[in-house]
Amino acid sequence: MSVITNIVEKITREDYTLTDILRAQQAYHEKRRWSIHEVISERKLTSFSQRDRAALWHAARAELTTQPAGIRMAVQGVQLAQQIEDDNPLGAMVLQAAAAWSARYWLEEEAHHEVAYGLLLEMTGLPPIEHDELVEHRGFFPEDNYARVCMLQACVEMEACATYGQVAKTTSDPLVREIFSNIARDESQHRQYFVSFARGLLESGVYPVKDVLAMAYTWVRPGAGETHGSTRKQQSKRQGFVNWWERVNTDEESGLALADEQIRSSNLQATKERSLFAAVFEATGIKVNSISELERAYFKSLTQPDTNRLRYSINQGTSEQVCVAQ
Ligand SMILES: [Fe+2]
Ligand SMILES: [Fe+2]
To answer: How far apart are the first and last CA of the chain?
Structure first.
């Protein structure tokens, strides 16, 4: 039991129905469920450090930003599926699968993360997140190209997985380690889902490859990509929605600033880049080994339509008419 990574192949070659896909999602979710209250139970933090505190301050806030994205992906996925149902039923199925997963499991699992980090944060003696800050993080996630958003979310999940994994590896507190490890594992399977949806949308001809490559490149582009977080000279202003990297605490005096190795060491950056290249390959079939290769692949996809040819050519002939992204 695992994530279905080749949705289009399953539908076209193994006759999977939407119901089959949704049942597989449910089975995998049930298999992976864990309870925060059972893990924490009567346990106490025994040896948390200042770094663990800073990590919790950030993680608890980062997790607040997921709910608006989950709601947007659920609603927009169904809307797009309805729009293309007649012209591209295969693409509509991929969108229905992505919308259902977002509404049912992604939102539910991210709720675990929000509550777990919130409880641990308070156990370290830091104040709870206040009402106004919580509500501010519930601003609506913007509507965008669905394939690009799938890739964006895959990137966010990889970022979370790498950052939380680093805390799990370096903390001396067993409870902090357990919670961060559990959540990092959840984020890793979320990344798999988002990559599989991006791949499904390309292979069913709903979006061209360039959209996924554009997002991957934007995420990691030298000096300005989102993996650089608060080190960028200027943060983008967005209306309504708060991105976690806009709220990175860099005030050394606060005792809550993240140490470099917790968020932007060269090792961590290399891990993030490797994960991104793997995700690009899984979603598009295009192999890149460096940011400059990714840049070349992206630019090529803008000017050479051949790069946008579907890997399996399963749904040839439909992509021209039903590309909702054009
Ligand atoms: Fe999360
Ligand atoms: Fe996640």
So the answer is: 36
Query: Does 197 reside within a domain?
Result: yes
Q: Mean pLDDT over residues 78-104, rounded?
A: 96
Kindly report the CATH number assigned to the domain that includes residue 294: 1.10.620
Residues 192/153, Cβ–Cβ less than 8 Å:
no
Which of 322 and 5 is assigned the larger pLDDT?
5
Structural domain count, the chain = 1
Ligand (nearest to CA of 102): 2
**pLDDT of residue 313 exceeding 60:** no
CB 97 within 8 A of CB 22: yes
**Distance (Å) from CA 186 to ligand 2 centroid:** 6
- Closest by Cα among 282, 293, 284 to 5: 282
Residue 37 in any domain: the answer is: no
For residue 34, tell me if it sits in a domain.
Answer: no
Question: Do 72 and 143 form a contact (C-beta atoms < 8 A)?
Answer: yes
Residue 162: is its pLDDT beyond 60? yes
Going from the Cα of 189 to the center of ligand 2, the distance in angstroms, rounded, reads 8
pTM exceeds 0.70, yes or no: yes
CA 314 – ligand 2 centroid, Å:
30
Q: From the CA of 12, how far away is ligand 1's center (Å)? A: 32
Q: Does residue 35 register a pLDDT over 70?
A: yes
Ligand 2: distance of its center to the CA of 153 in Å? Answer: 8
Cα 313 to ligand 2 centroid, rounded to whole Å: 31
Residue length, the chain? 326
CA 66 to ligand 1 centroid distance, Å:
7
- Note down the domain range covering 158: 19-29+46-226+253-309
**Buried-state track 99-138, b at ≥16 Cβ within 10 A, e below 16:** bbbbbbbbbebbebbbebbbbbbebbebeebeeeeeeebe
Residue 324 has pLDDT above 60, yes or no: no
pLDDT of 290 reads 94
- At 109-134, the pLDDT tens digits run 999 999 999 999 999 999 999 999 99
Q: Report yes or no on 325 lying in a domain.
A: no
Q: Count Cβ atoms below 10 Å from residue 209 Cβ, excluding itself.
A: 25
